[in-house]
Amino acid sequence: MGLLPGFLSTAPKSEAEKRADEVRTGAVAPTRAERARCWAARDAFYACLDAHGIVDTLNSEGRAAAARACPAEGAAFERDCAAQWVTYFKKWRVQDIQKKARLKELEAQGATRMDVQTDFTPRR
């Protein structure tokens, strides 16, 4: 005799678990402490990826490599950050690594680095 998934007994979620689910789905904005926890989890995940030479976790090969090499860090990152943030940070990581590699390549070819102001605040 099998049980249907809807009839399995599950403990009710605590208020903290409910809040975490709401942050993960984007239903509520994260507090400063929740953002800090997300960034710490992201940084730990990135450190693990760097240690194992994994760049892109958005493709199936990178996702599998990250799951093998950094399961705890990946789970914490997914748990502590809003789902949209996780996707954004993963895309940003790939683009940032590609940008740095391209800049290094250009400098090796003799390009000159230029300081560029990217905001509109007046310089003093």
TrEMBL record:
GO terms for biological process: mitochondrial respiratory chain complex IV assembly. Belongs to the cytochrome c oxidase subunit 6B family. Keywords: Disulfide bond, Mitochondrion. The keyword Disulfide bond applies. One of its GO terms (cellular component) is mitochondrial intermembrane space. Residues 14-24 have a biased composition (Basic and acidic residues). This is Uncharacterized protein. SUPFAM superfamilies: Cytochrome c oxidase subunit h. The keyword rRNA-binding does not apply. It is found in: Mitochondrion. The lineage of its organism: Eukaryota, Fungi, Dikarya, Ascomycota, Pezizomycotina. Residues 1-25 are annotated as: Disordered.
